[in-house]
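Exercise 7b. Backbone tokens:
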């Protein structure tokens, strides 16, 4: 079964309301009719509703950058799945390395969030990836296996097939240092093996694995040509229409 490529823009903590509106309008004009690849944008919470209104009717889907697993209550500063759904969100990024590094995200909280997102009929984009120190110590496979198994613990095969995994080597995020095609494909193939061990071949063949980490128009072709790379999670290059388009177009 051929997996449809999926390119998602992670705007991180960028864009005021006006900037987000301008970027979303530019994207709708540039790539709002593209259907041979799935496209999503993940603005900050404050801009979800406005961006959602602008991309409505286009092929671009709305994503959020995080969520809390609880349904409601006294969790100051947090946002629930129902809140995200109410403003038209489809995808939710979970376990981004910046969340893991700065905001105490663990494999356990990633798992709780993934379950909450799936229960709300939203689609998780689960981020995994090793730090430079872990790679240098030869721990890529140990880390990736722990993160993938942790994220999918207790999740049914049917729900797992609704998830996307984003392999994002931490040393390549926002650094300009991109994984070589060989490094990326090896990691993706390893992650697929882990999925086989948790579920089966069909699940491993069905779940899309994006690459993330300094993906740009000038390196996208080589990365997306790889057998096991099913798209990208794009940070810096998602903030300019031409750059994002330059990543979507070669797909
Ligand atoms: P980058 O970020 O493209 O700026 O490296 C990717 C990500 O963190 O999702």
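Sequence design result:
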């Amino acid at each position: 079964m051929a997996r449809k490529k999926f390119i998602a823009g992670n705007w991180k903590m960028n864009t005021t309301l006006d900037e987000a509106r301008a970027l979303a309008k530019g994207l709708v004009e540039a790539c709002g009719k593209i259907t041979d690849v799935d496209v999503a944008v993940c603005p900050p919470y404050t801009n979800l509703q406005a961006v959602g209104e602008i991309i409505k009717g286009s092929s671009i889907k709305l994503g959020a950058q995080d969520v809390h697993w609880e349904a409601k209550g006294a969790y100051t500063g947090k946002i629930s799945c129902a809140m995200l759904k109410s403003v038209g969100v489809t995808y939710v990024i979970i376990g981004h390395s910046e969340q893991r590094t700065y905001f105490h995200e663990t494999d356990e909280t990633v798992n709780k969030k993934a379950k909450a997102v799936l229960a709300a009929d939203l689609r998780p984009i689960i981020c995994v990836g090793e730090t430079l120190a872990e790679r240098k110590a030869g721990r890529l496979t140990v880390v990736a296996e722990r993160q993938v198994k942790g994220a999918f613990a207790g999740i049914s095969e049917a729900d797992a097939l609704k998830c996307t995994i984003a392999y994002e080597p931490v040393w390549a995020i926002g650094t300009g240092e991109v994984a070589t095609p060989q490094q990326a494909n090896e990691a993706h193939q390893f992650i697929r093996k882990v999925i086989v061990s948790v579920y089966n071949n069909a699940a491993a063949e069905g779940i899309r694995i994006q690459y993330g980490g300094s993906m740009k128009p000038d390196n996208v072709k080589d990365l997306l040509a790889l057998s096991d790379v099913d798209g990208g999670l794009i940070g810096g290059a998602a903030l300019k229409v031409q750059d994002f388009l330059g990543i979507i177009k070669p797909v």
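Instructor comment: The chain has one domain: 6-248. The CA atoms of residues 146 and 227 lie 23 Å apart.
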